[in-house]
Amino acid sequence: MTDPVAPLEDNTEAATKAAVFCAAERLFALHGFQNVSVRDITAEAGVNLASVNYHFGSKDALLFEIFRRRTAELNRERARMLHEANARHDGKPPVREILEALFAPPLRWGTTDNDRRISVQFIIRSRSEGTPEMREALTNDVSHLARFADALIAARPDLPRETVYWRLHFCLGMVHNNRFAEFDRLHVLSDGATREGDVEGLLKRMLDFAEAGFLA
Amino acid sequence: MTDPVAPLEDNTEAATKAAVFCAAERLFALHGFQNVSVRDITAEAGVNLASVNYHFGSKDALLFEIFRRRTAELNRERARMLHEANARHDGKPPVREILEALFAPPLRWGTTDNDRRISVQFIIRSRSEGTPEMREALTNDVSHLARFADALIAARPDLPRETVYWRLHFCLGMVHNNRFAEFDRLHVLSDGATREGDVEGLLKRMLDFAEAGFLA
DNA sequence: GTCTATAGATGGATAGAC
DNA sequence: GTCTATCCATCTATAGAC
């Protein structure tokens, strides 16, 4: 529950704001945006009803602020890993290490003992349930993805550019499908053979699959 | 607008019910379940407000009926293609043809001049925004997927079973990511290089990628 | 069966006391 | 800044006229 962004040591304004932020993120991630009311959030956070509008302006503005912060953190971590891969390979990393920079951050956030586990579900959900504002930001704000696309094009200069874009699209689909409900379904289908907890194992499986797909 | 399920030639009870069904499916697919009210649906269908409750019982029951019919149609078409692949290969079709039976039906429904285009978006959306009833059905009703899993296991008996299940999960992620919003984003990212309209081309790209991933 | 009118419940936002 | 009380809009569902 201790959000790294704002301390919770006393009952200052920042503490109330952080409590609302955390409660909203969790409830939205678990139950969906439209299924959570401002009353639910303030009750969960143990603050009064007016707090959301006082600190964030509106319910939608609160949603958007959570969305912006979490996506910025995710993009930063991905960019850092891509930067490190570049440094290791004189600016031309192989496909597998580019994909690892794309896959690893959201997967590692999803580790069962991780507070950020809920943030991943929030981000994935915002992709389909977000406000028009959020969806517009998702559609037009592709600068972070462009760096991955460029790296993949450099790693596979023999492929047509649009082929690389489509394969990046497929990889993103693999990432976005890692929702609680889909894991549960897979668990039922495989009769318990698939263990959700093994994040590093799943990362390796995803990299094996996607790397082979890229080298086709 | 002419739904194949019910004729619209006159103002019978069935015609009203079909009009509500079609209007609801389109509005839900375009704007999300929670963002569409019974008033929106009846206004779009040109019928009175009480029609939804009279013909379907409730808003959620209407949702569930659309969901059940469309998923049943999709599963039937996939099963038919898998059956044909089995017939062509003495009951042991190769990975690529199994995956084609999984990918082709929803993709071909998505052709721009197809009335079923909207049905695919509805099904994809129900996966993340559905009612608890729908999500329970999605989680526990895996018999149609089990046939694909079994076929893939038979095609790749050298792989551990759980590896096949995970790779099937990855393939489903590729399918579920084919939403309008994601196509738009990819269009922006690739600066227009990816054309959404070429369904058969996209099917080939998906099969190339996933087949290679399976043969890793 | 179809439609109008309305009940009954809920939610977002805000005024105003402290 | 915090909190209570409340306004007002919107929604689902239904009763009852025709």
UniProtKB/TrEMBL annotation, chains A, B:
InterPro entries: DNA-bd_HTH_TetR-type_CS, Homeodomain-like_sf, HTH-type_TetR-like_transc_reg, HTH_TetR, PsrA_TetR_C, Tet_transcr_reg_TetR-rel_C_sf. It comes from the Bacteria. Residues 37-56 bind DNA. Residues 14-74 form the HTH tetR-type domain. The keyword Membrane does not apply. The keyword Zinc-finger does not apply. Keywords: DNA-binding. The lineage of its organism: Bacteria, Pseudomonadati, Pseudomonadota, Alphaproteobacteria, Caulobacterales. It holds the Pfam family TetR_C_30. This is TetR/AcrR family transcriptional regulator. PROSITE patterns: HTH_TETR_1 (PS01081), HTH_TETR_2 (PS50977).
